[in-house]
Amino acid sequence: ETGVTQTPRHLVMGMTNKKSLKCEQHLGHNAMYWYKQSAKKPLELMFVYSLEERVENNSVPSRFSPECPNSSHLFLHLHTLQPEDSALYLCASSQGSDKNYGYTFGSGTRLTVV
Amino acid sequence: AQTVTQSQPEMSVQEAETVTLSCTYDTSESDYYLFWYKQPPSRQMILVIRQEAYKQQNATENRFSVNFQKAAKSFSLKISDSQLGDAAMYFCAYRAINDMRFGAGTRLTVKP
Lengths: 114, 112
What we know:
heterodimer, A: about 110 residues, seven-stranded mixed beta sheet, B: about 110 residues, mainly beta, four-stranded antiparallel beta sheet
């Protein structure tokens, strides 16, 4: 176990479906992140939560909705997605949001929108 | 905004040989941190090594070392005595507050 667990590992959904991605960490970290990883592109930051408050929302379409109910859990709610949203969605956590803290990543959810 | 560039989409190395992966970045800050992450087929990003910009000494972790050239804004990763398990995507990253900026990655193949 890496310390950051993401479920499900794979998800196929239609454009009219509603689904949620889950991320869980028990490392005592205070910051959590959602990244989108598309083929041959740099990882794109989507959302940042620090001490359970959203501190970054990187111009992400409203069809993606994050939720952080406590410092150990992070969700990404999905609805009416487009085929171009198909990607690997990575969750990460860090001890804090300052520059000296590296990330611990989960294994990602491979999302396919059909 | 800080940007990170990895100019080598793919690299190949013979087992037991040495390979260097390139990374350049752009920033106006003087105090920052740089990281190399490895992403094997299992998809989980694993921290390989990190460098603090205010430290002149290059970081090393066993077979992994960096060549950090602050003035040139260059941060290359050297892998010595390459092993089959080193085959993966390697990402260079610049740590900012509330964010980590990644390069597009270099796919490393290790030939037996």
